Amino acid sequence: xxxxxxxVDPGILHLGAVIxxxxxxxxxxxxxxxxxxxxxxTLSKRLHLIFKSMEDLFRQYKPDxxxxxxxxxxxxxxxxxxxxxxFALILVLAEEExxxxxxxxxxxxxxxxxxxxxxxxxxxxxxxxKLLGEEIDVKITNEHILDALGVAITCALEERVL
Length: 162
Description:
The structure is a single chain. The chain is of the alpha/beta class. It has a single domain, classed as Ribonuclease H-like superfamily/Ribonuclease H (Nucleotidyltransferase, domain 5). Helices cover 48% and strands 23% of the residues. It has helices at 43-61, 77-97, 106-114, 121-132, 143-158; strands at residues 2-9, 14-23, 26-36, 65-69, 101-104. The longest helix is centred in the middle third of the chain and has 21 residues, at 77-97.
């Protein structure tokens, strides 16, 4: 049985997403996307860009599950509001596509996956590489993709897919 999980690290400036596929005992990253929107664009244009990119990803890869990292309230309320809008946009897409979803606080999924909710990015990459193999780390081009992969793996473990 083939299972696909879409992991997302949402953000208005930087969004990372990963399609992780399991086919028997073999795991493969089918697609990674990194969306970097310009702060010079209007909020509506940035949200539209994210919406269209994520809609394409949902429709092209038809994931079986969505794993979404929850927003962390920031000191700046405006940034928190924008991040929450991206989070909500992805929730709406998941509902539209009827994809079951799991949301994870960053410290929770890192603790479940690696035993430390405040693990540093380099150590997180080592932890994930141990789980999925050396070839995985070449597809992880930044911390947002890494976090998206982390929530996808956490979902797989919870759903007993891994």
